Amino acid sequence: MKTTLKLSVKSKILAAACLMLALASCKKETKLPPESLSSATALKTNAIGTNGPKGVCYVEVNSNDLRNVAKYTLTNGSPLFDIGIIFAANINFNTSSRTAELFFNPQVTNVLSNRDTYVKPLQDKGIKVLLSILGNHQGAGMTNFTSMASAQAFAQQLSNAVSTYGLDGIDFDDEYSDYGNNGTTQPNDSSFVFLVTALRELMPSKIISFYFYGPAASRLSYQGVTVGSKVNYSWNAIYGTYSTPAVPGLAKSNLGPAAIDITATSAGTAASLATRTVSDGYGIYLYYNLPNADSHTYLSNISNALYGFGTVYN
User: Fold this and answer.
1) b/e burial code for range 5-32 (CB count within 10 A of at least 16 → b)
2) Which residues form the signal peptide (predicted)?
3) Fewest C-beta atoms under 10 Å: which of 88, 228, 243, 301?
């Protein structure tokens, strides 16, 4: 799960909303479309310009610069990271309309509003940029939508954000929602499936990923539809460990069992997890908490194991 640093950052989020769209709820539940409509796993699975697992990197933009993702290359010239994730936007709860609302704190707002400065430099190198979504202690989350209509309304907000800010997709992280606050409901079996189904319909060619943690991790199918048929990737959430996410519908090439915290996981452990990722044939290696400081020596231990190339800091 996320570190103590991450929790403290979330608790200090300032009350500034950039995108606040009202949602319309509906009590009548809609049946899901068949899985055959999904094209979730159509993306290429190799790293940019190199055979091997994709590198996925979360950046705490409250304290670190997203542009650091583009500063690291392999010695063959390819980017080290294939996907950079803006951590994080939130699901807030509007107590008047009793609906979920997408919320950006000032740091996330700065990154998105200045996409040419922070996002485009990554995309120009072929790196995909996702926006991570998680709770904000207000009772609203990805697993307690009570109808397809309410899930669709929030999915529309997410799709609008991706379109408005020129992003490559959405990452779901079911943490810090504090389900039950403000009189909200507890997690249910249909909500997360409704949400990813609705978002996939709105973003058929964009990336949807799942940080394998929280109530959503045990609510991955409903009415015969699996979350794995709608999302592209899922990865382990416990840093310094190796554990394959149990997401029905995703192949090994779309899963990441290895997860590290760059500032906390030892270099030896990180390299060992990289070696195991390759030997077991998985397609994702997850990095968390890329700092502003030059970390190329540490990262070289990983890249040598993943690709046979060291890492350079530009």
Assistant:
1) ebeebbeebeeeebbeeebeeeeeeeeb
2) 1-24
3) 243
